[in-house]
Every structure is written in structure tokens, then in C-alpha cells.
From TrEMBL:
It comes from Didymella glomerata. It is an enzyme of class 2 (transferase). GO terms for molecular function: ubiquitin protein ligase activity. SMART domains: HECTc (SM00119). This is HECT-type E3 ubiquitin transferase. SUPFAM superfamilies: Hect, E3 ligase catalytic domain (SSF56204). It catalyses: S-ubiquitinyl-[E2 ubiquitin-conjugating enzyme]-L-cysteine + [acceptor protein]-L-lysine = [E2 ubiquitin-conjugating enzyme]-L-cysteine + N(6)-ubiquitinyl-[acceptor protein]-L-lysine. GO terms for biological process: protein polyubiquitination. Pfam families: HECT. Its EC number is 2.3.2.26. The keyword Membrane applies. The active site is at 493 (glycyl thioester intermediate). Keywords: Membrane, Transferase, Transmembrane, Transmembrane helix, Ubl conjugation pathway.
Length: 525
């Protein structure tokens, strides 16, 4: 790959890291295999201490993986315990090991979460089958129109799936129309999508259509001219548009879409900052010092964070004379600049004129600006979105995640490893040693991250690797005849790449580039 990221160096065996290992060893040695633990026992005390250290990991320079204890997952019932945890009641002297996501590897947390959602789907399926059985018993007894009326009223209950049938012409409108006032019991069923079938497209939903569906509708919803979200041109991070004029029910419905995707195990083509996931998990924002607030905006608004860092660290005179910045929050909506005066007197009343940021108030200014950006100016939209976000998800099940692991669950991994992609690939009428296949991987090995992303999306309809890793991907290379002028095609429904046996590498490179850069929709061969 041409794009190589710099991997930060681990801090090594510090005193704190050694203490953490001691706590983990204590847990493993004394744990009796039960998920409920006495808070004051050796295990309970060690878990509590690990939790407190994790809360301050940044200041202690400790990596998150230092807290993980895979032993716990390996020795608990990973099918029954997550479901039981939903009904577990908080107790004064007892803690539950699933209360502490920081000690569980992300892969295991995802398994727990998927087990919970699958049990919910199975409960809906059993209810549907039971209703079908009752209807069969009534068939010989009831006559029309009574039978018709009963079946009509039980239509939602009798459906095995939640089916969304949308067009490519107006996908977002079709989706919102079909989700609006949908019964929650129907939303908890497995999702099946029909995309573009009304316009003649053919595609079976084995996963690829669903990925394409979310890519299309979220692409429309996140478009800046739609007025609901903004996209940072540098980081491509998405955020709520302050002062949006769109009705709140649309934000709620988009939250429902996120909920549906997460519930059905779909990786979404979105990039939200860390603050978004803290808000979804109701995590409090802690400003331990003037600089700590910058950690909440550094990934989503790096230029803003850098300018604030300069403001906070400035020592050559008063910042009021150098930066000449008003104590106000500013944003743009539909090309118009809006300024909100954040300064207040001690009694809470505003000043007659917005004061400047000075050396004395710059720390408070940065904290106020950050909270306005990520909370105050978007509060109604955020509240509506969160209400939709929890539609299909049990709040207790989301407690399994930290903001970082929830981000990975929703967004997957956007860094594509060609080596790992090659290792998971399968073949039809080809094999891994075939000259055409080796030629293909030689070409792909030289791809940039952007090109590798386009290739993955061309074959699977998703531009990223799911949280469960490459083993969850279907990347099947199928021989499509001898050398020809035909472009490679794909069937994203099945994760198949149809590749002719081109005679030379340059021709294959050229044909692949044309196919990947200009393809859209579902190729069916």
C-alpha cells in the first residue's frame, strides 16, 4: 500500500502499567466464574480500581488494550449471560462484570451485543410463527369478510421481515415514508431491502443491497444542501447543522435508521467525531483543565482545536490585542453567518456588547465554545436523533460499549489492508496461484487507501471492514471467460468480482480502474 500510517509507540512497563497487570492477575486468580461479583471482594476491588484507572488513562498514558481480560469471556456463558444482563438490577454491594466494557476486548463485546439483538429477533420470529399457527386453526371456522379483517389487522404481526422497498429516484423520501409511524414490533424483525426494483434493477438482499441502501440514503441525508448535517471538508466528519430548519421528526427518523443498521449488524458509511458517541451513550463531558476540552473536538474539527491550542498557550502579550476574538460562538447556515454571545455577567445577564477573549477568560471561552458546538446549539436535533437511535436497541445493551468501541461497531475500520483482504478472498474457476489472480493482487497491492476503498465498495457495497474483521467479509473472485475487452463486473449481493482472464497486467489495471471508478448499483451476470 502507498499510504502508511505512523503507529504511536506504547508507553511500556511503567509503574501504572505494572499495577494494572497485578490487578488483572488478581481477578483471574480469584474469580469464581460468576458474572455477579461482591464489590468488596478481591475481584470486585480490582475491577473497581481498573475502572478508575481507565477513567484517567489519557493522563496516565495507558493504552486501552492494557485493561482487557480475555480470560473472562473464555470462562463465561457468552450466550446466556448477555441476555440475562438486560434484566439485572443494580445492587449496593454487588457489581456485574458486563458493567465494565473497558475490561472486555471489543470483539467479545460485539458478540455479546449481537447475541442480545439476535435473541430479540428470535422472540419476534417465535411470536410471528405462533400467530400463523393460530390463524391456521381459525381458517376452517371463520368466513369472509371476518377472516380478511383479522388478517389485515394482524398484517404487521404476520410479517417475518421488515421490508423496505425504495426507489433510486427518491430513496430518502421513500424510506422515511415507510418508516413513519411503523410499529416498533415490526422494526425488531430482520431487515430486508428492495432498492431500485421498481425501476427494473435486480438484486437479492444477501447483505450487499442493504449496504448499498444505507450508502444511498445517508449520502442524501448528509448532503450539505439538505440542511440537516455539515461535513468537514478536511476530515470528512459529519455533524449536526446548528440552526437547522428541518423538522425534528426527520432527525428522529434518521436515528431510527441508525438503530436499524446497528440492530441488524450493518456497518454504516459514516464518519462521526468521538463526541457523537459520547452523546449517544449519555457520557458526561469532563473538563479537567483548559486543554482537556480540546480532546472532544480534535478528531472532528482539527483546525479549530489547533487554533484554540494556540490561543490557550499564547504567552506574548494579551490575546485580546493579538487575536481580537469576540466571546461568541459562530456558525454558518445556508450561507449566513450567525453569532451567539456566550459571555454572561456574574448574575447571568448578558453584556451590552460582546466582550473580547482575554488571557483571564480564554480557558472559559474554549470550554463554552466546545459545549456550544457539540451540545447547546444542536440540543433539539440531538434529542430527537437519540430518541430514534434507541428505537431498536436496549439501553442496557449499549452499556457494553465505550464511545471508542461503539464508534468501531457503527463505522467499522476504514483502513483497508490488502494483505488481510487477500487472505480472506475465495475463488471460482480460479485459484490463489493462477497467473491472473496473482496479477490482480500485484495491482491491488500498489493501490492507495482510496483506491482500495473503492475496490472493496465495488465488490461488497461497503467501503470499510466490519468491526468483526476480515473474516466477516465475502470477497469472491470469479473467472469470467478468457481475455476480452469486457470490464470486470460485480455482484454486491454476493460479494463477487467477475474478472476476465486478461492477457497482461497493464490491460487488467486499466480495465479495473474504469470499472471501479465508474460503477454504481448492482452488476448481475
Amino acid at each position: 500500500m502507498k499510504s502508511v500510517s505512523t503507529i504511536p509507540k506504547e508507553p511500556g512497563w511503567t509503574v501504572t502499567a505494572t499495577f494494572i497487570e497485578w490487578m488483572k492477575t488478581t481477578i483471574i486468580k480469584h474469580w469464581n466464574g460468576k458474572v455477579e461479583v461482591n464489590k468488596w471482594s478481591n475481584v470486585g476491588t480490582a475491577v473497581t480500581l481498573l475502572h478508575e484507572l481507565h477513567e484517567h488513562q489519557r493522563q496516565l498514558n495507558i493504552w486501552p488494550r492494557a485493561f482487557k481480560i480475555p480470560y473472562l469471556h473464555e470462562h463465561m456463558n457468552a450466550v446466556e449471560e448477555p441476555v440475562k444482563y438486560l434484566d439485572w438490577k443494580l445492587q449496593l454491594n454487588t457489581l456485574h462484570l458486563l458493567q465494565y466494557p473497558e475490561i472486555h476486548p471489543t470483539d467479545y463485546l460485539v458478540k455479546f451485543f449481537r447475541v442480545i439483538n439476535l435473541s430479540s429477533m428470535m422472540a419476534q420470529y417465535d411470536h410471528t410463527q405462533h400467530t400463523h399457527q393460530m390463524m391456521r386453526q381459525f381458517d376452517p371456522v371463520l368466513r369472509e369478510p371476518y377472516l380478511y379483517i383479522i388478517k389485515k389487522r394482524l398484517k404487521v404481526t404476520l410479517n417475518d421481515y421488515l421490508i423496505l422497498d425504495v426507489t433510486r429516484e427518491q430513496p430518502l423520501k421513500d424510506t422515511l415514508d415507510q418508516l413513519w409511524k411503523q410499529e416498533r414490533v415490526n422494526l425488531l424483525k430482520p431487515l430486508k431491502v428492495k432498492l431500485g426494483q421498481q425501476e427494473g434493477e435486480v438484486g437479492l438482499d444477501h447483505g450487499g443491497v442493504t449496504y448499498e441502501f444505507f450508502r444511498v440514503i445517508l449520502g442524501e441525508a448528509f448532503a450539505p444542501d439538505y440542511g440537516m448535517f455539515t461535513v468537514d471538508p478536511k476530515t470528512q466528519m459529519t455533524w449536526f447543522q446548528p440552526g437547522s430548519l428541518e423538522p425534528l421528526w426527520k432527525f428522529k427518523m434518521l436515528g431510527v435508521l441508525f438503530s436499524l443498521a446497528i440492530y441488524n449488524g450493518v456497518t454504516l458509511p459514516v464518519t462521526f467525531p468521538f463526541a457523537f458517541y459520547k452523546l449517544m451513550l449519555h457520557t458526561r463531558f469532563k473538563f479537567l483543565d483548559d486543554h482537556s476540552s480540546l480532546s472532544y473536538i480534535r478528531d472532528g474539527w482539527p483546525d479549530l482545536a489547533k487554533s484554540f491550542e494556540t490561543l490557550l498557550d499564547w504567552k506574548d502579550g494579551d490575546v485580546a490585542d493579538v487575536f481580537v476574538r469576540d466571546y461568541a460562538f459562530s456558525y454558518e447556515v445556508f450561507g449566513q453567518r450567525v453569532d451567539i454571545d456566550m459571555a454572561k455577567r456574574d448574575d447571568g445577564t448578558p453584556f451590552d456588547e460582546t466582550p473580547l477573549v482575554t488571557n483571564e477568560n480564554r480557558g472559559a471561552f474554549v470550554r463554552d465554545y466546545v459545549t456550544h458546538l457539540i451540545l447547546h446549539t444542536i440540543r433539539p436535533q440531538l434529542k430527537a436523533f437519540k430518541k430514534g437511535f434507541y428505537t431498536c436497541l436496549n439501553p442496557r445493551s449499549l452499556e457494553l460499549f465505550t464511545p471508542k468501541s461503539l464508534k468501531k461497531l457503527v463505522e467499522g475500520d476504514q483502513n483497508i489492508s490488502v494483505t488481510e483482504l487477500r487472505a480472506c478472498a475465495t475463488y471460482e474457476d480460479y485459484d490463489a496461484a493462477h497467473p491472473a489472480v496473482r496479477m490482480f493482487w500485484d495491482i491491488v497491492q500498489g493501490y492507495s487507501q482510496q483506491d482500495a476503498t473503492h475496490l472493496l465498495e465495488f465488490v461488497t457495497a461497503s467501503d470499510r471492514v466490519p468491526v468483526t474483521g476480515y473474516k466477516s467479509l465475502t470477497f469472491n473472485i470469479v473467472r469470467m471467460g478468457n481475455d476480452s475487452e469486457q470490464l470486470p463486473t460485480s455482484s454486491t449481493c454476493f460479494g463477487k468480482l467477475y474478472l476476465p482472464e486478461y492477457k497482461d497486467k497493464e490491460k487488467m489495471r486499466r480495465k479495473l480502474e474504469l470499472a471501479i471508478q465508474h460503477a454504481k448499483g448492482f452488476g448481475v451476470v
